[in-house]
Amino acid sequence: MPSQWSGRVILASIGVLLVGFLAFALTTDLQAHARERHEHAQWSGARKDLSAIRYDLAAITYDKALTTNQRTALLAQVASTLGQLATTEQALSANNADLYVQGVSIGTLENCVGGIQKAYQQIGAHNENLAAEDISASSAACLTVAGGTSSGLVYPFDFPDPDVLLVGGTYFAYATNSVAGNIQIIKSTDLTTWTPVGNALPSLPHWATPDATWAPAVAHIGANYLLYYAAEVAGPGGGEECISVASAAQPQGPFVDNSSAPLECQPSLGGSLDPSPFIDTDGNLYLVWKSNGGTEPATIWSEQLEPTGTAFLANATPSQLLVPTQAWESGVVEAPDLVTSGGRYLLFYSGNNWNSANYAIGVAICTGPLGPCTKPLSQPLLASTSSFDGPGGESVFTDGSGSYWLAFDAWVPGSVGYPHSRDLYLRRLNILGATPTLGSVP
Predict the structure, then answer these.
(1) Whole-number Å distance between alpha carbons of 233 and 211
(2) 239 versus 328: which is more confidently predicted?
(3) Centroid of chain to Cα 23
(4) Helix and strand tally (H, E) in the chain?
(5) 203: helix, coil or strand?
(6) How many CB atoms within 10 Å of residue 330?
(7) Are the C-beta atoms of residues 263 and 289 closer than 8 Å to each other?
(8) Closest Cα partner for 355 from 328, 390, 407?
(9) Which residues, other chains included, contact 433 with Cβ-Cβ below 8 Å and sequence gap of 6+?
């Protein structure tokens, strides 16, 4: 198991941790105050205070993850935040029976927060393997705390921009840096229980900025697994987002990128990101990605790659697939994923502001891997629901039976926007009709 885990795991779980502190504070007087369930107004006010404190603590923890020399300052801020929590304890304790009303027991909360606390302790002791085991052991309890699996939630920790690949009988999921270094990996054999693996990309090429990698996608090409990802260009004159590719002999990595320059950049268009490889039915390989917008609006592109997948085909030029044209997109199209079935080409994409509840998933129908593409719907395929907010960063994959699934990230309602976590969700996908439809959860 890779050993590049970092303290950033606490960011992915901080909401759960604070709820655990609350649970411990309430246990002693649970029975005595059960009769006071009617005080919902007081409970509501306290929850708002707690939400604000959670946000502050999450931001502090994120700073710690990026600058490890601030550990002393972090601990001081944590102590201060816990002091603020004490000011809401009295109001909350009068309403702790609501936890049972919501279907979450004190024992479940304790199991969840206990696992997170153990993992954090193991990280401090530089025992990354035990930290991964503690996270895995607490995942089921944390799923319950986060609302259960009825909405498709399968991994209740930060896992943005997911990409899922089935290899043999194991599903490997890759995501934007958060828990484990540059590109994080988790794995599952049943799509419901996921185990952290670690960091897929331990080192970056010299031109890339550390701690600034996003939106991975992996394809099995020949004897290699290729990981396409976005990174920020380092040094004077850099700062734009560009696309690169790393290779490995196995799906869990470690992936290696020895490139001297990005694969694709488009600086005049604001940079390039969200790469997604596509293998056509004739075996030809393409890369689909998004330009940020500069002299043109945000745009989704496609270009044919060489058979090795590590360079574009000689004399090939990018083809424009999609631009924002609908009100719900609010000028943004991104996170493309191209799928073919039954002679049709479907382009799934995200639109609107990723940092809001308005983010959503759309679909277009294309005549081929180089377009053109049209939008059959005037609204998103999937938008915010009562169970999650701002779904996006989607990817499509098939299970062992050939059935299609949609993987996506989404915010917990009430905790929308950075630095809150975007958890991993899965939904079945039916692409046989005139337009795709979403089905059941795992």
Answers:
(1) 12
(2) 328
(3) 27
(4) 6, 20
(5) coil
(6) 14
(7) no
(8) 390
(9) none
For CA atoms 151, 157, 158, 160, the dihedral sign is: negative
Amino acid (1-letter code) at residue 370: L
> Look-up: residue for tokens 């090429």?
205
pLDDT for residue 19: 38
Q: How far is CA 427 from CA 195, 348, 354, in A?
A: 19, 14, 20
- Rg (C-alpha) for the chain, rounded Å, is 22
Question: Coil, strand or helix: which one is 291?
Answer: strand
Question: 84 versus 358: which is more confidently predicted?
Answer: 358
Structure tokens at 22: 């609350």
Structure tokens at 344: 């049709």
Sign of CA dihedral 254, 259, 263, 268: positive
Q: How confident is the model at residue 272 (pLDDT cuts 50, 70, 90)?
A: very high
Nearest CA among 170, 196, 148 for reference residue 425: 148
Please choose, from the candidates 221, 54, 152, 191, the residue with its C-alpha nearest in 3D space to the C-alpha of residue 387: 152
- With bands split at pLDDT 50, 70 and 90, how would you rate the model's confidence at 104? low
Q: What is the DSSP letter of 157?
A: S
What interhelical angle do 9-26 and 40-66 show, nearest 10?
150
Torsional class of 34: left (φ above 0), alpha (ψ -120 to 50), beta (otherwise): alpha
Q: What mean pLDDT value characterizes the chain?
A: 79
CA distance 48 to 30: 21
Least confident piece of the model among 41-50, 292-301, 318-327: 41-50
Least Cα distance to 230 among 258, 249, 209, 256 occurs for 209
- pLDDT mean over 146-151: 74
